[in-house]
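Internal tracking record. Fields below are filled automatically when a chain is submitted to the structure queue. Please do not edit lines marked as system-generated. If the sequence contains nonstandard residues, flag them in the REMARKS field before resubmitting.
Queue: standard
Priority: normal
Entity type: single polypeptide chain
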Amino acid sequence: HDVLQTHGLPRGLLPAGIAAFSHDPATGRFEAVLESPCTSRTEVGLRYNVTVAGQITYGRIAELSGVDAQDLFLWFAVRSIRVDVPSSGVIYFDVGVVYKHFPLSFFEAPPPCVPTSRILLQPHQVTPSRHP
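SYSTEM-GENERATED OUTPUT FOLLOWS
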C-alpha cells in the first residue's frame, strides 16, 4: 500500500490482506498476491483475482490485470486507474467502454475483502422431450 501512496495514488486501491507484494522501481511493474480471490463491497464494488498486476507511474496504474469493477449488475475488467489532479478529489477507472470516476475518499484505506465463493456447475444430461 505504501507503493501506491508514494506514486500519488490512494492506499485503498488494493484490499487488506495482501499475502505477497513485489515492485520493480526500474520498470514500475508490480504484483500483489492475495490469499484467495475476493470481493470488496464498499462504495464501489471491486473484485480481485489472486494476482493483481500492473505498471505504476506517478498518478497512474496502466496494464492492470486482476481487478474488476461492478456497474449495476455487470462486472467490467479495470484496464487502468489514474488520478489526473490530486486536488480534484477524483479518481478514474478505465473499464474499456468508458472511464468511471469516483471520489478519492472512497479509497483512503485498504478495504476488507471477502473471499469470493466459487460456484461449481455440474454437467447434467438433458433428456429431449417427446411431443405426441
